[in-house]
Amino acid sequence: MKPLTTVVNLTAANACVPVVALLDSGSAGNFISGSLCRQLKLKTSPSPLIYQVHSVTGKPLSRKTIRRCDIVSRITTDTNTMSESLSEKLSLLMWYFMRVIFLFGSMMLLSLRLSVFTALGLPIIWIIPEFSGRFYQKLSVQVQESLAKANDVATETFSSMKTVRSFANEDGETERYKKCLEGTYALNKVEAAAYAASTWTNSMSSLALKVSILYYGGRLVTGSDVSSGDLVSFVLYELQFTSAVEVLMSYWPHVKKAVGASEKIFEYVDRKPEIPPDGSLAPPTLKGHVRFENITFAYPKRPDTDVLKKVSLELKPGQITALVGPSGSGKTSIVSLLERFYQPQNGEILLDHKPLLSYKDQYLHEKISVVSQEPVLFARSVRENIKYGKENASDEEIQAAAKLANADDFISNLPKGYDTDAGEKGGQVSGGQKQRIAIARALIQKPQILVLDDATSSLDTESEHRVYSALRKDLKSCTVLLITHRLSGVENADHIIFLREGEVVEEGNHDQLLAKQGYYAEFAKQQNTAIHRNNAEDVTFTDQ
Ligand SMILES: Nc1ncnc2c1ncn2[C@@H]1O[C@H](COP(=O)(O)OP(=O)(O)OP(=O)(O)O)[C@@H](O)[C@H]1O
């Protein structure tokens, strides 16, 4: 790893350089690879963001919520520290340790008194580096944390570049990044000073020991207790001995640090997820009948706020069930529970009359496909995006899924058709096109339960209608949960559940709910008013 100061000097010059520099240096800026995650068997659990943050010495710093980037940089830093120390420094430490033993034995053969005198002086060269080492170690943790923070800012800025630019806030972000780097730089200077001071005190203490041995040895020679030849041999051995002890001293903090880092890594590996382990059920056929029974749920971050209160609902196979309600009423939370990302505090979720908990996690995620409002596409071709998760899908299957999602026409009109690059996070296709590719990606899995969480919000009414008609025709036995704010979508549903402040307040079909003149009727009225208002505005605009 390059010295940190080099990294910081590089980073100060240009906002783009540091990321590269940090990545190259293999320091906290590195991203953990998926394979490493798998090797460490890290579970991306629902409450993924709650971890205990530890210093590299393994002591808990505080129980707080940290971001993914923090976890990523912490794990990469710790794994780097551990692998470096174990591969190189531990073997050197063992070699020097054997050397110290051998040299001290030889010294004892030459003069027992001088050897005892040397041994008495050893604590001096032990204690001073121990204290300076602790201080240095504390500082290096701070430097790593500060680097991780700077890296967070860079990552966030680059991944939201469009938003940054549209608010003309490039300078603001550069300033934010600069401030983080300045903090790191300041810490680096202190770290460098501490390093110099500890090296200096180490050398001075061992020099003091050598001088005292020479003085005491001289007196022993004068008193004829030791021959001058033995003293010379002893001093030669002692020089080797102290330099070996110095090397041991300098490597010791690294090994201690590696022990702390390894404790942390194994703590992650052995971490017990806050949700109960999954079951073993993976039946060959699944009907897709879902029941929520008296579900009460609060997010771990806000344990006092129940977002779902005694919710009971049923999703039947072959039916489209629409979940409607004001923003924040808990619709997406229901999906998260169905995906087993969280565990409800009370109540039970049943899938085909068996507790959701008894199913294998992977099986559940194969059988349940969720398309969200802002699906994530990968920077690969449209074809690769559609067959994501089903790598062996044939071209015919890809096209069939795209047709179902009403995406085939626009994909065929793209410059390279299905081989057109979707761009980073799907940046080279429109919002509606992105949603249709995501729906095709979900459909190719042939899920038994399909959840469309505002997944057609960017489609025009005509395209939306075509998607629903195709779904209705093709997914006859599939359970569809449709979350939408648009009346045009809800009207396609067989059953409608109205959620308000975490409670099911009404359910039935469109006509039944309209007749009730309750919340749903009000929702429909508002939608119609909005449509009329939009139409009127369009007319006025055209007149002008
Ligand atoms: N990860 C979270 N941690 C804590 N609270 C959360 C979390 N996610 C959502 N909430 C809160 O839970 C409540 C329900 O959110 P949810 O996303 O389920 O609502 P929604 O009905 O899907 O809203 P929308 O229609 O706007 O998507 C909201 O008050 C929200 O602030």
TrEMBL record:
It comes from the Eukaryota. PROSITE patterns: ABC_TM1F, ABC_TRANSPORTER_1, ABC_TRANSPORTER_2. GO terms for molecular function: ABC-type oligopeptide transporter activity; ATP binding; ATP hydrolysis activity. The chain crosses the membrane at residues 100-128. It is a multi-pass membrane protein. It holds the Pfam family ABC_tran. SMART domains: AAA. Its main location: membrane. InterPro entries: AAA+_ATPase, ABC1_TM_dom, ABC1_TM_sf, ABC_transporter-like_ATP-bd, ABC_transporter-like_CS, P-loop_NTPase, Type_1_exporter. Residues 70-257 form the ABC transmembrane type-1 domain. It is found in: Endomembrane system. GO terms for cellular component: endomembrane system; membrane. Belongs to the ABC transporter superfamily. ABCB family. MHC peptide exporter (TC 3.A.1.209) subfamily. This is Antigen peptide transporter 1. It comes from Anabarilius grahami (Kanglang fish).
